[in-house]
Every structure is written in C-alpha cells, then in structure tokens.
Amino acid sequence: MTATGAQHYFASVPSAVRFVLLVAGALLLGGCALYVALSYVYAFAILRPNAPNTRRAHILRAALVELGATLVLMPLWPLWMLIGESYKVAHEGEGRARGPRHPVILLHGFAMNRTNWLWVGSRLAARGVGPLYGTSYFSPQSVRVSAQHLKNFVERVIAREDAARVDIVAHSLGGVVARYYIERLGGARRVGRLVTIGSPHRGTLLGRLGLVPSARDLQAGSPLLDELGTPDPNVQYTSVWSRADAIIIPPESACIAPAGQDQIFDDLGHLSMLLSPRVIDAVAARLAA
After folding, report:
1. Which domain holds residue 279?
2. Most buried among 3, 207, 216, 276, using CB within 10 Å?
C-alpha cells in the first residue's frame, strides 16, 4: 500500500475508531519512552553514575535501541491469546542440519509471554535449529511454581518429539526459572544446554522494588537464589548479557562463569537483546556447539 493509499484508507476509518487508535498509539509510545527513560536514569545515573567498563556512548545507544525494541515487542504481547497454551514455533525445514538434535524450548521473562520469541525463533529455525517450542507462564508467581510449569512442559515436548533431552533458551526471569528446574526439580537429566539472555543469576537491585513473589525471588541474596547454589556440571550453561542492561542491576550479576560460558556485549538493552543479530549468532553458535 502506498503512502497516499494508506492516507485514504485511514481517512475512511470512522472517526471514533481513529481516535481510539491514536490514543492507543500515543499511550504505547509514551509508556515505552517512560520505561526506557526511568530504567536508564535509575540504573546508570542514580545507582551507577561511574559504572566501570561502561561508556556513555554505549548507554545512549542502548537506550535508543531499547526504545525501538520495546515499540516492536509490546504490540505483539496480546497475540499469545490467539495461539494455544503451547505451540510449535517452527518445524524441521530444509535448512536443518543433519545429525541428532534436541528440541529447543524458548522461555520468556517477567511480564512477557512467548510472543517475545517470534523473531528469535524464526531466525534460529532458518539456521536449522529446532524443533522450537514456546510456552507462557504466569511470571508474577514464585519461581518455584513457574519451574514446575516448565517441568511439565518439558515432559510434554519430550513425549511429543520422542526425545531424550531438550535445550532451553531463556530470557531474564526465565533463566532463573530454568535453573531452578534444572538444579532443584531434576531437570538436569532432561536438559543438555541452557542459554540465558539477560538473566539475573546473582539477583538484581530492582528485585527489592517488586511487590510480587517472583520479583522478591530475584533480590540479591534471596532464599531462592541461595537455594540454587552451583550450576549443575552435567548441563552446559551459557549466559548472554550486556553491560548496558538497565534491568539487571548491576549487569555483572548476569555472569555465569566459571560454571559456564559468558558472552558479553557493551551496547544492548534488556529487551533489545531479543532482536539483536549478534545475540542470535551467539545463541545459535552455542546450540550448535
């Protein structure tokens, strides 16, 4: 549709509908801008004004990219209701690498759902990774309850694919949920690799602002994080994180070394990592290792 055609089409929409769309668009833009502004000011101007290994140019770039990523991902949020409780993001295609592979489960973070993985899933599938599955869970509940949901979902995927093990790619809170499943609910026998993206393995200062169980679980030194202990040696861990992440405070708390491998960036925000080709390259390489 040309620009002129779009203008004519919009003009034909009833005025009440146009008003609602404009208000919704303004609220979305304002809400996303507020999220980015508050998170970066709090993380890097108030808490860490002289953060080591973080350049102002990197922070500024990360904030701008984070705004764009938020504007892309947030409108997709309601689409999870149009899919099922669980669904196959992609299937085995012609580009699939030969040899034995594990099904890959994509696990979202706090206040999100499986629509976060639409871009990552399509890019991984194009590289022959998979089959890929996504699930949504009620993220405000405790990490322990969410880990039980993950355990049940893994068993369904394994039964469907007739597989022995799966790999998990998890964002933010999802990485802690996956670790609890692996290390406390017997998931080590079901998981070959865990790749986390922006996950607070050592907690985040934002956890102390949380009013829900999962946020309190993510406070540094929380009973749940103490319960996790050392990552299971039978699972290959990778943590992808950024020094410009304004949600994981300090960003270094996403470090998994020496128990696993770290992949560190300097100029990506918390959500924008889900749209970054560099992050997708890192995830794909680890899954193919």
Report:
1. 78-287
2. 276
